[in-house]
Fold this sequence. Notes:
Layout: H1 2-19, E1 22-23, H2 34-41, E2 46-47, E3 50-51, E4 54-55, E5 60-62, E6 67-73, E7 82-86, E8 89-93, E9 109-114, E10 117-118, E11 120-126, H3 127-130, H4 135-139, H5 143-146, E12 150-151
Parallel strand pairs: 1-4
Antiparallel strand pairs: 2-3, 5-6, 6-11, 7-8, 8-9, 9-11, 10-12
Amino acid sequence: MKSRLVFGLLASATALAGCSTTVGLEATPYASDPTCATMLMATPEDLSSFPRTKSSAQATTAWGEGGSFRCGLEPPTPSTDRCITVDGVDWLSLDASDPRIPDNGGDGTWTFLSYGRVPTVEVVLSTEAVGSGTVTDLLSQFTPALSQATVERECVGLTDAPLVDEDDNIVEDETSATPGTGTED
């Protein structure tokens, strides 16, 4: 009798697992980076009220309609994209018209790319997951995962950027170049 009960419970659990939704996510070019596996294990089990669900590609995970995480993207180059720092991790906030927005991004979501860390990750957060909290509240849940990545660069403000001359050489003496023009005084 006990073996029938155990078998029945296992069959029920298997049937329920078969009903779970798989979120279709696109594979990334560097998904096989071993750090992605470590990072994936450090992502949160729940994102707001959304439990983790299956995803369709290596080095990805999702939380139903709450959001997704993809590891191993092409690292972003230095840009003028809005950068926010959460718990020491730099994130580029992608504009809604950005061609890097994935299929599960767009209306009703925010899309972020980690900046200056290898491997690069993408996090998509839905407005439902953010709820009455803030985007930074949710991004902070990814700090343990991002702490596994190697830091190679960080975001800088406009006033932190070096002055350059017309040949893109860094100007050591601020009086010899006019900011933004690369010409001498």
